[in-house]
Amino acid sequence: MAYILNRLLSVLLTLFLISVITFAVTNILPGDVAMMIMGTQSNPEALAGLRETLGLNDPLVVQYGRWIGGLLTGDWGQSLVFKEAIGPLIAQKVVASSLIVVMSMAVALIAAIPLGVWAAVHRDRWQDSTSSTAALVGVSLPDFFWGIMLILLFARALGWLPSSGFVHPGDDFLGAIRHAFLPSLALGLGLMAHLTRMTRATMIGIMGQEFIRVARAKGLSEREVVWSYGLRNAVGPVLTVAGLQIGYLFGSIIVIESLFNFTGMGWLTYQALLNRDIPLIQSTVFVIAAVVMLTNFLVDLLYVVIDPRIRLS
Amino acid sequence: MKRRDFLSNTTALFGATMFSGAAPMIASAQTTPVTGGTLIWGHSETTQNLDMHQTGTASTGRVLQNVHNSIVTVDKDFNVIPMLAESFDTSDDGLVYTFKLRAGVKFHNGAEMTSEDVKYSFERCANPDTGAVNFEVFNAVESIETPDPLTVVVTLNAVNAPFLSRLAENGAGVIMPKGSGDVQGETPIGAGPFKFVRREFGNEVELERFDDYWDGPAYLDKVIAREIPEPTVRLTGLRTGELHMINDIPADRMAEIEDAGEMQVVKWFPLNWDFVNLNHTFEPFQDARVRKAFDLIIDKEVLLDGALWGQGATTASPSYPTSESYNSDLSQRAQDIDAARALLDEAGYPAGSLDIVFKATTNYPYHIESAQILVEWFRMAGVNLSIEQLTWADWLSQCWVDKDYQMTMMNFFTLWEPDFLYYSLFNSTGAFNYRGINDPEIDKLTEEARITVDPAARADVYKAVQQRVFDETHDIFLWFRNGSIGAQPDVGGLDSIVHPNGSNLNFHKVWLNA
Q1: How far apart are CA B452 and CA B41, in angstroms?
Q2: Which residue in B has a C-alpha nearest to residue A89's C-alpha?
Q3: Angle formed by the axes of helices B365-380 and B300-308, to 10°?
Q4: Closest in B135, B185, B410 to A46, CB measured
Q5: What's the total number of domains in chain A?
Q6: CA–CA gap between residue B170 and residue B149 (Å, rounded)
């Protein structure tokens, strides 16, 4: 319990520091939101008026205080450029990002773990080199390449799946899965390659250890040795990597989001930055940071379940 | 190219609807209109603040064209014609404008439009607290009176010849129901043919037919504008049939779409125009010979082919090509590297002595491509040109606001209102004079135009401005860029969709064949 409290405290402190740094950095950037709103229609007089209206002339401390005060009281304010309430806006994009991240991770894990184990068990044989080559191809080719190929095949040639767009699972669950499928697959292929390599390496390490020899000596079937003894021990590091990836994917898959016009948190953060929309930048970065830390925290907790030897202290 | 050739060429080429009612070149038969259906439009840009007064972006105006009506509007020849006002009258001294409103016009909230709404809308736009992009339109307004529910009298304290035509655009001329200002940003309410239903930000905007529209209900039940900024994604959506239509077909894919012949392609002209800017506060460019030499270095036709795949037409004037103020006597300088070298020598900049940084924004990828083509020509002329790529925010702050650049490039809407165009861009006090142009002759002419009420005389003044800008090479004009729409064969009424301003799309008379 003390461990959990400690972790939570450090998470909160980190989030606070991140928000201060984000705020400072975005204020150093050249250009401001008033200019982005007016674009090439801006003139000094109008800009000055708009800056005043938007509260950009207030001291930075006041602007920051306004944001954090709102955050704590549940009113996340309004995007300056888009005039949308930030809370619901982020909620919607979080759903989109979560859908795609969870689905791609599922695709990746379902394929990567058996493939990695298979390669490790048949180390240095044709199974291993096949799996390694496939993984190398998967890691080397960027996800947007897979995206384009998948669109050409499934949307253009076969016409089975939509090529773009996001549907809210609350409105139409099947439609949501159909729309999220191709982007998830495109992301999942690269991830799968990565996780296959990871599973293989960890499994090889584990399978050479004493307790595996003991298990074999006890006369357990090879199947039992590999899946119950080997994999159970190998899965921890794989999950850690997968957990880190979830946080990373959540806010940084802008290329895939653009390619499939499946706008999530990555896209929203990019728009916020591009437009110097400070309250929106603050809130998106904050949410992404929170998700990254939350997934790491959960992975740590999951460790205890998987490996009873670990005691949190 | 003479204006007549230029027009006939473009009409032949594009068959666009904007000229003299020529029939569009659309492959499928346009049958009789059908009511019903939801049209899914792949929109090329993301909408921003939905408040018509506060938004300066073309993307938002394009969608809101369907939600709002302005007090007056323009026909395809840019004559101001009635809209929500069924008639208007200007006093002989040009100071008093009287608008007679159409009776029985309903807003989407069910309220009936009265002169109070007009007063509210104009005052809201004029109020600096609103942050309206076009607030300066009302600078000369002294009073707005409403003698009866259907009459509005606007009195100016100085003649402002462009006043009425500025009101023909939604930015300043939109009529909103009284008191609706606070909700306009998220849920716009107007008197247009479609009601705003919802926006999922960055994903789609949903519009629904407004059955009580004063000019008769639209055919479509709904329009869903999916926001798809990636050109190839948009095109894929059209080709897989997920979208009924898209705007802005990528220039490099145009030939492919037209050759395939499965889609309707509507092209019009012009969407916007581009020019190369020379900073007049940068020492070498204070010499008109250097500016002229730079003009001579650029082969505009080749640049148009290279950067825009020929999707446009070169021009020496930024005036709207069919407008009265377009100076058709001007033609661009042909490329002449030797002459350019001679001029640069004469001005004291022999080959190898000029190092110029060209700042181009990645917001318009074809600007980057143009800059890359320019480098080689400038090298041939003995000028070392290097490119600096800027994001939109950086371009705005460095070039537009701080005027910290030597050479750059920009595009503008084809602003058909010449005062907006010439005064703001070329007058030494103009709001958009980011090149630091300071030419007393131009200042005199642009001031004179403002108080010249006779349209023909006013057009002549603007022609003189164009001549002066050309003679002095204050800027280097390149081209008008085409607008385009690609649509499935079952979309009808596309000949009516493009607003005269070349950017806005109006779905009032568009339908879907079952």
Answers
A1: 43
A2: B201
A3: 140
A4: B135
A5: 1
A6: 22
The whole-angstrom distance between B151's CA and the closest CA on chain A is: 30
Q: Is the ipTM of this complex over 0.95?
A: no
Q: Is residue A20 part of a domain?
A: no
Looking at this protein, which amino acid is placed at residue A284? T
Is residue A137 one of the residues assigned to a domain?
yes
CATH number of the domain within which A186 lies: 1.10.3720.10
The total of structural domains in chain B comes to: 1
Q: Tell me the chain A residues in contact with residue B200 when contact means C-beta distances shorter than 8 Å.
A: 92, 168
Reported as a pLDDT band with limits 50, 70 and 90, residue B414 is: low
Tell me, yes or no, whether B444 lies in a domain: yes
Chain A hits for B203, CB-CB cut-off 8 Å, are 165-166, 263
> How close is the nearest chain B Cα to the Cα of A85, in Å?
9
Residue type, B419: D
Nearest to B56 among A37, A82, A84 (CB): A37
Does the distance separating the beta carbons of A36 and B396 come in below 8 Å?
Answer: yes
- Shortest distance between the Cα of A175 and any Cα of chain B, in A, equals 13
Q: Does pLDDT of B57 surpass 80?
A: no
What is the model's pTM?
0.80
Q: Is residue A289 part of a domain?
A: no
What residue in B sits closest to A162 (Cα-Cα)? B242
Domain span at residue A131 reads 86-266
Give the domain extent around B313: 270-482
Pair of tokens at residue B26: 């659309």
The CB density around residue A146, as the number of other CB atoms within 10 Å, is: 21
pLDDT surpasses 90 at B313: yes
Q: Quick one: how far is CA B407 from the chain centroid?
A: 23
Say which residue the tokens 């008639």 belong to. Answer: B87
A59 falls within a domain: no
CA closest to B421 among chain A residues: A41
Burial of B122 (0-12, 13-18, 19+ CB in 10 A): buried
Kindly state whether residue B476 falls inside one of the protein's structural domains. yes
Closest chain B residue by Cα to residue A157: B240
